[in-house]
Structure formats: C-alpha cells, structure tokens
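Take the subject:
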Amino acid sequence: MAMGVQTERISGSPPPGEREISVWTLPTDIMAAADGPRLSAVLDEGERARANAFRLEDDRLSYCLAHGLLRRALSTLSPGIPPSAWRFERGPHGKPHIAGPIETDLAFSLSHTRGLVAIALARGLALGVDVEADSRDVNGVEIATRFFSRDEANALRALPAETCPRAFLALWTLKEAIVKASGRGLTQDLSSFTVELDRPPRIASHDASLADASRWRLWHARTGRHHLALAALDADPEHWTIVHRRLAGWDSPVH
C-alpha cells in the first residue's frame, strides 16, 4: 500500500512559474533485506557492483535505496523516462551528473547514512546535499581543530558540552554539502572557508578556491534523528524556493 508524503515549503515565495529545489528524504528502516533485489533491479551494473561491495546489509540497502530514489525522482520530473534508463558519469573530482538517455539541465546530489537517504534536484543549479545521524559518537572539537577553519573550531570550543555535538554535525553537513556543490568534493580544503550557523546559515569567509559567499544559499534542518543540509549556487530566495518532501515509504506518491 502506498504510504504518505509530507511536503514543506522551506523558504522563498517566487511568483507562478517558480523554480524549485526539491529535497526528498526517505527513512531506511522501512526496508528489509528481502527488498534488496527489488531496489537493485532499477540500478545499472556499476551501481549494483558498488552496492555488493558493502560488507553490511544495512549499508548495502541504504546505497540501493538512495540510488533507486534518485532514479525515481528523476523520472518523476521527466515523465516517460523509466527509472532504470538513467545513465550517469563522473566529473574530474568525482561529482556525478546525468549522461543520458536525454539531454537535460536537471542537476542532483544524493547522500545516505544509517537511517536516512536524501536527494536534492533542480534545473540548472550546482547542488550539494548531505545527511548525518545525530547519534554519531564523534569528538566535534577535535575534528574541527584538525580539519575546519580556526573560527569554526573556536566557535565550537566556546559552546556548552551539551550543545556542541549538534552544532558540530550541523557544520559538518553544511560543509559537506558545500564541497559537493562546488564540484571539488574531497579535494576542497575544509579549512578554506568558514560557515556560521545563523538563521539561515551562511559562508562568513572563504579563499579564492570557492565561489563568492554572496552566491551561496545554505539550508540546514533536523529531520528525526538526523541532520540534513543543502547548498546551492545562485539560488536567491526571490526566484527559487526549497521544497522538502518527506516520504514515508518507497511507494509514496509524489507530485
């Protein structure tokens, strides 16, 4: 039976004919090991090989669910193209993009972690999305001191112990989303730019390796026990709106 979907308009109020950044999230606990073959059926040979490389069944299912959801989302926006037909290539720094079967300006980003998968889609934008579980046992200050900017590490160090872990994960997901959107991925130095957790979050400073801060639009939210972050270039709120679709099940109808 089809399960429901909650749709939330996050920000922006463009006029009719609006341009939309669509963020889809889906919990992984709805799936069981028996669902693996059904999910992998829409994947290509390379995706199935990467899925089978995961040692743990939960990780394998999360991968299949994320990549299957991406294919379903792309087909929802491109009626007539079956989910299994999409083909992908990777750029010089590993960022995936659509290679067929049609020419399209659709851009996407995907992320998956234990418990949740996320997809972001829009037309003609550079996008990055990231999710992390809130329950991750990490020393945020230590990691930030090694890899983040000095200002970010100092800001975390100044926080009370009870709020620091969540602030760290908010920063982590935002920075991961930014480097995905930049196209440079792991080659982008995480200490080369500073994110401030304002409402909305923003890039406070950066070096020449990153696009100007005024061009970035950032969004962060908690969804259940997870942190969800989005980064997009040139998506000003007057012309672009962010819509978060929380799917309750694989078969949830989406419009």
User: Anything to note?
Assistant: The longest strand covers residues 19-27. The chain has a mean pLDDT of 88. The longest helix spans residues 57-77.
